Amino acid sequence: MNREKMICSILLLIILTSCVSGTFVVNVTQTSYQAEENHDITLEWTFTTNPHSSSNSLNIFCELLADLRPSVLFHLHEGVEVPESQDEQFAGRVQWDKDVLREGRLRLHVSRLRTEDSGLYLCDVLTSYGSNSGRCWLNVTAARDRPEPETPNTTSPPNTTSPPQPESRGRIGLYCGLGLTAALLALCTLYSIFSLCFTKSTDNKRNHLQFSAVQMSSLSDTSHQD
């Protein structure tokens, strides 16, 4: 049985079992899913079970209702998976849990998500005791761009010196002014000491000359008396 005949048979089964669909319910665990590109996600549906019904009567057809054309996500025919019905977009990326199917739970694990996987997902569940469908929305966003690490600029060496701030300039000027004042005071002090020493030396020489003159005068008077 090819894919087109399978789809037609499923649609026919939906029409034939529409009269009892009121007692058969298909729900979704979440109405909306949010995921990021290249991540994995699990889509889950639940449906009414019947202990008197065989799993061979279970038919499930899940597809992505895209803008251009539907893409088959998962196909189960009379309890057996039909991988050839799966669209190429999902080939090798969908796994399902067989153990929970008998409990009325359909789990589809979709790996390596793509942005084109975004859209409305519809799952039709058909059994011998009823049929119904459930839908959910999946939004796959692009992977976040990671900022590139900053590379140091090797063309010119970094400026390690910075111009002095106004406060530093003021301190430097103050220090220079104090240094100049101290130098001037030192020069004045040296000049005063030098002047004082020179004055004393001059006075001593003058006194010595005066004393010598007095002695000479005394000697001269003595010689005249003799």
Could you explain how this protein is built, in words?
There is one protein chain. This protein is of the alpha+beta class and 226 residues long. It has a domain at 3-141: Sandwich (Immunoglobulin-like), CATH 2.60.40. The protein contains two helices and ten strands; from the N terminus they run αββββββββββα. A six-stranded mixed β-sheet has the order 2-10-9-4-5-6. The chain has a four-stranded antiparallel β-sheet with strand order 1-3-8-7, with no helix packed on it. The longest helix is centred in the last third of the chain and has 60 residues, at 166-225. It starts with a helix and ends with a helix. Mean pLDDT is 75; it is low at 13-21.
Query: Into which percent range does the helicity of residues fall?
Result: 25-40%
> How many DSSP H or I helices?
2
Structural class: alpha+beta
Distance between the termini: 177 Å
Second rung of CATH, namely the architecture of the domain at 3-141: Sandwich
Give the CATH superfamily of the domain at 3-141: Immunoglobulins
Rounded Rg: 55 Å
Q: What is the count of β-strands?
A: 10
**Assembly classification:** single chain
Average pLDDT across residues? Answer: 75
Order of helices and strands: HEEEEEEEEEEH
Remind me, CATH topology of the domain at 3-141? Immunoglobulin-like
Q: Point out poorly predicted stretches.
A: 13-21
The strand line-up of the biggest sheet is 2-10-9-4-5-6
Overall outline: rod-shaped
The CATH class name of the domain at 3-141 reads Mainly Beta
How much of the polypeptide forms β-strand, as a percent range?
25-35%
Profile the largest sheet.
Answer: 6 strands, mixed
